[in-house]
Amino acid sequence: MNIKQRFEQSTAILNVYGNPLSETDIISLKKIIMSIVNSGIDQVILDFSEVKHINSIGIGGLLHARKALEKVNGEVKLVRVNNNVRNILKRTALERIFRTYPTIEHALQS
After folding, report:
1. What does the alpha-carbon distance between residue 54 and residue 22 come to, in Å, rounded to a whole number?
2. Residue 68, domain CATH
């Protein structure tokens, strides 16, 4: 997996690539999230535009990110989630705890 990160308005924006996200991908994501939290940033946007499918490993990574950010009163927001991923979030009831947005701009404004 490849994760590209940038920062905007004190928010980390991570472009996530992988179909589905593998265990190695999630280990990388966890390290990046911990680095972001340790640097004092408490808002993370995960851009899922290049993720076509998510499995239990990917869901575990999302939950880890949420928990890490929750400890510092932060939040993980998901953007550009396709219908396959959205349906999995609905079936697993994760749509209740992860807010999704159509664009990065919408997530930044919320």
Report:
1. 9
2. 3.30.750.24
Question: Does this model's pTM top 0.85?
Answer: yes
Tens of pLDDT, residues 31-49: 999 999 999 999 999 999 9
Question: For 7-29, what is each residue's pLDDT tens digit?
Answer: 998 899 999 887 777 788 888 88
Closest CA to 57 of 81, 15, 24, 35: 24
Q: Which domain holds residue 48?
A: 2-109
The C-alpha atoms of residue 27 and residue 5 are separated, in whole angstroms, by 16
Q: Are 17 and 2 in contact (CB under 8 A)?
A: yes
* 102 prior amide bond cis, ω within 30: no
The angle subtended at Cα 34 by Cα 30 and Cα 40, nearest 5°, is 150
